[in-house]
Structures are given as C-alpha cells and as structure tokens.
Amino acid sequence: PVFFSIRAYVSLIKPDQTMWYKACKTCNKKVTEAIGSGYWCEGCQKNDEECCLRYILALKLSDSSGEAWVSAFNEQAEKIIGCSADELDKMKSQEGEGNPFQLKLKEATWVPHLFRVSVTPQEYNNEKRQRITIRAVAPVDFAAESKFMLEQISKMKLS
C-alpha cells in the first residue's frame, strides 16, 4: 500500500448502509448468533451472552482536488462521528421529529480533518480498483496549517 496525508471533509455518510457489525468483546472479530441464545465467536471458539458493535463505514471524502470513497473502521469512525457504534445504534432506534441518528450523521459532515490514508490496488471481476482506507484521523490545527501555507508561499516567491 501507499500512504499519504490529506486535509479533507467528510462530504457524505450514507445512512442506509450497513455501518457496523456485531463483534466479540474479547477479540473484536465478527460473531454469529448462536443456537439458543448468545453469540458464537470463531476466533475465541466460545459462546458469549453479549457482543458489541464495531464500525465499518464507507465515507465520501472531498477536498479541493476532488472526492473519493474511503473505508473507515472502528477507532477512526468513532473520531469522525463522535460516538461509539453502540450509541449510534441506540439513536437509530429512536424515532420522532429531530431524529438524533440523522442529526449525528449531519454533524459529522463538512468538518475538516487531517486524514492518514492507505491506497491498495485491488482487482474485482477483472476490474482494477483502488481501495482507500483511513488509518488515522486528527482535527485540523489551523495555526499550524496557516504557518505551513505561508512557508510554501514564501518558497514560491523565492523561486
């Protein structure tokens, strides 16, 4: 994979996508509903009464050069959305005016972030694609970004 950093906005989080999966509380691997009750984890080879939800999001990132669909997993998605998948699931089940689920997704869009992403070539149905995955998310430090831009401008003036 190739790694790079970008400053971008989350322009779209599709509310109708599968946003999380049920995971084992011990190893974070996907669980299946066990016969009878509880959840079965293949990784731990055990049955558990409870599981937790972990994010697996598809987001559209936009910057001045364009836009791209990226994948975000639990830790990075929590930073972007501002709550855990369990909390967002509870919001989704609430109904009524001013749906907190929709509001939470709306609050997460058009906020600037610094992203560290990886790009991996992939082939699907004999079609070559790029898989872009968010590896780290940080809020934008506007003072540092302004200083960096001013340095770049002064380098342009010298050359």
From TrEMBL:
Entry keywords, A to Z: DNA-binding, Metal-binding, Zinc, Zinc-finger
Q: Which residues form the Replication factor A C-terminal domain?
A: 3-149
CDD domains per UniProt: RPA1_DBD_C
Q: Which InterPro entries match?
A: Euk_RPA1_DBD_C, NA-bd_OB-fold, Rep_factor-A_C
Q: What superkingdom heads the lineage?
A: Eukaryota
The transmembrane segments are none
One GO MF term attached to the UniProt entry: zinc ion binding
UniProt family annotation: Belongs to the replication factor A protein 1 family.
Name of protein: Replication factor A C-terminal domain-containing protein
Please tell me the species this chain comes from: Escallonia rubra
